[in-house]
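Sample 1 of the test manifest.
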Amino acid sequence: MSDQKDIQKINSTGFFALVIGLVALAISLYGIFSGLETEDPARGFLSWLVGLSFWLSIALGLLFITQIWYVFHARWPTIIRRQCEHFLSVFPWLFLLFIPLFIIPQIIGEPGILWKWLDGANALPGGHGTVQDDPLYQWKSVYLNSNAFIVRAAIYFSVFIGLSYFLRKWSFDTDITGNVENTHKARRLSSVGLFLLATASTLAGIDWFKSLDYHWFSTMYGVWFFAASMRAALSAILIFCIIVSVKGYMKGTFKQAHRYDLGCMMLAFTIFWAYISFSQYFLIYNANIPEETYWYNIREHDGYGVKNSWWVISLLLIFAHFIAPFLMLLWYKTKIVVNRLVFVAIWILVFHLVDLYWNLIPGKVIDATASHGYYIRQFSVEVFDITAIIGIGGICIWSVCRSMLKAEPIPIKDPNILTSLNHSE
Amino acid sequence: MSEEIYGIVASFKDTPSLYHAAEKVRDAGFNHWDTYSSFPIHGMPEAQGQKRSKVPIFTFAGGVTGLTLGTTMVWYMNAFDYPLIVGGYPFFSPVFPFPIMYELTILLAAFGTLGGMFIMNLLPQHYNPLFNCAKFLEVSDDRLMIAIEAKDGQFDPVATKQFLESIGGFDIEEVTA
Amino acid sequence: MSSDTTDCSIDSAKQALLDKVAPATLKDQNLVTNNREFSWVTNKICKIVESNTPNWWWVCMAVALVTASFTLMGLIWLVSTGVGVWGLANPINWGWAIVNFVFWIGIGHAGTLISAILCLLKQGWRTSINRAAEAMTIFAVVCAGIFPLFHVGRVWFAWWLFPLPNANLIWPQFRSPLEWDVFAVSTYGTVSVLFWYMGMIPDLGILRDRAVQRLTAGIYEETSKLRESIARGTDVFRKYFYGVLAMGWRNAGNHWRNYEMAYLLLAGLSTPLVLSVHTIVSFDFAVAVLPGWHTTIFPPYFVAGAIFSGFGMVLTLMLPLRALYGLHDLITQRHIDNMCKICLGTGSIVGYAYIMEFFIAWYGANPYESFAFINRAFGQYSWAYYIMFSCNVFTPQLFWFKAVRQNAALVWIMSILINVGMWFERFVITVTSLANDFLPSSWGYYSPTIVDIFTFAGTFGLFSTLFLMFLRFLPLMPIGEIKFIMPQADPHGHSDDDGKESE
């Protein structure tokens, strides 16, 4: 445990985060129910989904990083790994916060409000009958149905929770016992865990995000979700480490060399994200098959060639989510000067959110007055988006604070702790 | 052969003593001197008081040249000089020539890097007076050396020798130019 | 917030925490075993080049040259007759040539991966294997280049692929993936050579200095006068050959500073390059609309496969070399373990991609796409599919077991299986999709001709020839970098644990 002053600060921060989180979540719930009356009832659920996926992607990315560090026997990030482990405590809460997305539509008797295919009676946009008449749905109904959805979601979350439970348990145990066997166990679990996690997060990405538009398909999607999560996770953990080191909790242990290496990883995954996103776009652009291109088309124009609001967002993803952080991170100074690095990390997180908007929000909303019988849901930042992000974030931060009280600020008896503390560029 | 002195070399027994000696030479304010070892030493540039290498500037210049070259080349050849309609693609777009732009960026940045390394190290330089020193050739194996050049403002044949001895050097020799 | 608020300043409470730090001990094997000295490393590696040519080398060289002549024969046959001598026929107009091209290019990728990506990840164990792996890269690119170069038929017009003005006044067509390939592969070859050469400069300097030292000492203890003068003459040759190539390298601190920076930058450039090369190779297939070719996961999947096959080839080459030259202290069990684990990891990523392709082929609900995958597994080429799947996905799973990783002979056999599996992967992708496409009336079956087989078999000879030449003339391992990871190179005193690894 850390000293009294720190404990007090952590306690009060956690309490504060919990209160704000609960209030914001209550507002979001209000948003969901009040949105039911509007012409686009799914929007409120999408707000919640965006908020959830933002924090989920951070937590999943950190679970990936922790295991990757174990598998590579990485020594320098040992002190950072402890901070990741605090974040790994959020999965059970994220599971609880995931449930409303499925349960509320069931309760109000419109199960297919968010994921259209959950209700076979849902009308298809453009007057093509209902979901159950859709041959594409009929083909996929073995996979896309509510029982399978529940079972799979339970499996995904048990993978996330199980892995994070053991990684945390063994690491915290080393603080007390100094038992090196814990490290060996964590390494072994991570090598298997990465496979489980890769499978679970890929399929989760398909189930929860890609199936929002169940016609579209891309084999790259799971890799995209991994890349995006890693970027978000690295930025989040960097900001977290800097905050706690400025506030005193990690003062003097988190140094320039750690920042530099985290900065390098941020750069690497910025490139990787661009590589994955570009490849997906590029292949679909070149092959030009209508079954696939429509997904990009609705994110560019209205069907008649008039650019819609997603066009600007698409360009922002290229220039602001890739090129700007890429150029900033190329600079050596950016990776060591605290202010600049925090700026880039916040920048990446903001545009990661924009990326999630761009992936999740666009969709066809049935509207008899529109020319095709539907219109494309446009980009907008709703109040309830913000409350969902803050609300779920508040719960996550509360959970992190709780976890911080359970272990030393740095893994003091980890075999690699000295290498990490003395890490230099 | 003139009897002019190129500089004085001194050997050191292991990596830590070379490292600490380098710090002392730096603090004594010498400018024209260097350490010699057959492997890079972690933290040595700081111990020698050297700034961060300037090679990245060359890399960056190479990369920007490559990107510009790739873009203009595709535009000139496929959209300006001889426009061809192929597969319904536009004559020019930033999407399809991306692989070309990308590869040329990397290619010229790599040439820039290697060239930058040569320029910053003043290589190729196949002759250097140090090569006349038999002990210097042993640096290739496991000898660790510091050489202070005569052109340094503080250089003095006797005092510098004593200085090198005082910081732990042995096998101290003058190297003629 | 300024940068110094997080650094250095430690108050008493934090000091109390730091005082509690008591790391448990974790015994890892050193990267250079048996507490070797610097001079032992220098001698061990330089002697490979400097000692007399061993007999096995001549035998291997003879075999390699004979095998390489097969390629020469195949190519002469092709050029003098026409591309019709290959087994290409409608509808399969891409056969062994593209398969072999992708196969060899893929093998090359491990070299760049070891030297670039592992360098960026600060994996100290790369040093013993990176030089040989980079050489492997270059020679593999040479072998790969033969196929696209000669498949154009009239090979003397191959320069039309480059953006040079020609008599027809037309330019290359940059919308074609094959044109992207030209740029990707030639850039890759060039940058690999630059990287390889720059890494070698300090070692060439060492070989130069040693030749000069021997010439100055003038002592050659050979059995006869003739042998003595041959030895002396060889050293004169070495003095100039290595001297010119070393560019006057002096091992200066200043040299190392710029060199290290340049090396890091080249590593930083090679990493996106190596990803892009196989990505662009995958575009050859994936931008098409053919079922089984057009799938968005191709780029990372091809890259993982390339690294996988490359590590297979590194193991195939390094295990015999380790035994022949007694390099057990430099290429330790830990190195082999790590390479096996990378094979396991990349092999599993490839498995992930196979399964994901299958799943999305079904999920996409496109009947042609579904058929393409069912046909792969159960159609006329299912034998190739099972070879591919078992070699690439199941074989590496054995690397979970320590006992397997410690059995060098078994690892070597498995590395060959990986190579076989990866060749079949490219065969399955290329041929099955072309043989059974949209129109059943145009379906066909592909068989290679003797010319195909000759040309491909010969490339192994060409590759071996080049590699054997490399062994004799250039330093097999980066001496400076190996010394860098030894405990004696630590400026802050020796420590028993090799703290530099994966720092």
